Structures are given as C-alpha cells and as structure tokens.
Amino acid sequence: xxxxxxxxxxxxxxxxxLKEECASDTLSPKVFTTAxxxxxxxxxxxxxxxxxxxxxxxxxxxADDVALIxxxxxxxxxxxxxxxxxxKKIGLKIHRGKTKYMTNYQSEETIMxxxxxxxxxxxxKYLGQTIMLGEHTREEVLIxxxxxxxxxxxxKDILCDPKLPMCIRRRMYNQCVIPTNGLWx
Length: 185
Known about the structure:
It comes from Stichopus japonicus. Keywords: Endonuclease, Hydrolase, Nuclease, Nucleotidyltransferase, RNA-directed DNA polymerase, Transferase. The chain is 43% helix and 16% strand. The protein has six helices and ten strands, in the order H-H-E-E-E-E-H-E-E-E-E-E-E-H-H-H. The protein has a two-stranded antiparallel sheet. A hairpin with a 2-residue loop joins strand 9 and strand 10 (129-132).
C-alpha cells in the first residue's frame, strides 16, 4: 500500500489530528482512520490488553480519540512507545498535552514516552462520559443533569412554545435534551 504512505506523509499532525487545509476535505477523516487502522495492525498487541470472554481488548477508538487498555503500567508504557514509533513512520505524532493515563489501583509507577513523563489522572472524560475510580455515581449524575438543563435552555423557546404541536416539542426534547443526559448508559 505505498500510495497510502505517500498521502500520509503529506499530512502533518495538529491539535485536531490533521493539517488545517485538509480539515474541510471529506477524505481526511477517512485517511486518518485508515492510517490508524494500519498502525494498530503493525503493533503486536496479542499478549497485552484485558481478557474479555476469551478476546483481548487492547484499545477503544473513536475518530481521533484512542483509549489504550493494558493490565499493567509497564505494558501501557510499551504500548504507548510502540504506538508513538509506528505513528511517526507515517508522519503522525501523539499529542503530549492530551495524552494521559489512569490506573484502577494505587501505583507510584510512571509512564515515559521519549523521556517525557505522561500525566497520571484520577478521572478523565472519554466520549462525554467521566471515568473515575471509586464510587462517584452521584457526581456523574449531577454533571449529566446540569448538561441536560443547559441543553434545555438552548431550546427553551421551541420547547415551551404553546403554538407548536406537542408532538414536535416532544420529538425535539427526545432528540436533543434526553441524549445530553446520557443516563441510560
């Protein structure tokens, strides 16, 4: 697949993942997704990751967000460094300011990528969901309720307009406000 390598070398990483002049191009997200798929195929991840029903779960990917899953901090460091090496080969790089890690146990271990320490977090937001250790359900529910009210406020004129049929207002509420709460997860 030499053409893919040629295309990807012309694309440089910015905070959004792709060169700004390519951002409006509908092909850019597809090229980026293809590039990420090729990178992950080259990584040897069979022995890393979390065993879920006999399958190894090593990562979750959505657009340019990647969550890596390992069973130890050392494996995470190896995984990140390998990802960094493979990404650089095609002109992409890991955004150090956005790269964080979290463990589900107390640990003083650190993760280094190119002699830089990666920040350890006790919570982070992935695809709109706050992930944290311990029992923080109440806090997450309050965050979701606040987001719901904020969304409701944006559409208040439509949702509270008595001139509009209730079926339209209900549909607007169900499609815009309810998904913001995310409480069905």
